[in-house]
Specification:
Layout lengths: L28 H16 L10 H14 L2 E6 L2 E2 L2 E2 L3 E9 L2 E7 L5 E7 L3 E6 L2 H5 L3
Antiparallel strand pairs: 1-4, 1-7, 2-3, 4-5, 5-6
């Protein structure tokens, strides 16, 4: 006598796993507060002025980043209350007139385009690809 064994699997029954989304409710209020506090401290810290670069050296770094598909960190010449803004970090998509087109990641994993004129760039350097990939 043989019995037929039927294995029921949630995937076969139409269950769609939401991945990480289902665990969002597990984060404690204290954890959220601590994460917010860390972000505020990072944003409010005084940003030091980097060495001002010539247009030729800026162009070399931009070309290298464009060809090798590496992200860059750009410090703008713009000041707010005597302090520099945080670096703009992104991938160089191309050039249009006197502007550099960057792909910048946002907090919610989508990307945005940002355009920066060459005269707004104070300093530019190649950004560590490992830090860029861990930004998500």
């Amino acid at each position: 006598m043989s019995e037929e064994v039927i294995l029921l699997n949630p995937d076969k029954m139409g269950y769609v796993d939401r991945g990480k989304m289902k665990w969002q409710g597990m984060i404690l209020a204290e954890q959220k507060d601590y994460i917010r506090k860390m972000k505020r401290e990072d944003e409010s810290g005084e940003i030091q002025a980097k060495e001002e670069m010539t247009e030729e050296s800026i162009a070399e770094v931009l070309y290298t980043a464009y060809v090798t598909k590496l992200p860059v960190a750009i410090q703008a010449t713009i000041l707010r209350d005597g302090l520099y803004y945080p670096d703009v970090i992104g991938m160089v998509l191309g050039f249009m007139n006197n502007k550099v087109v960057l792909e910048v990641r946002r907090n919610n994993s989508d990307n945005a385009e940002k355009r920066i004129t060459l005269d707004q760039i104070r300093n530019i350097e190649l950004f560590d690809i490992l830090k860029w990939n861990n930004k998500r």
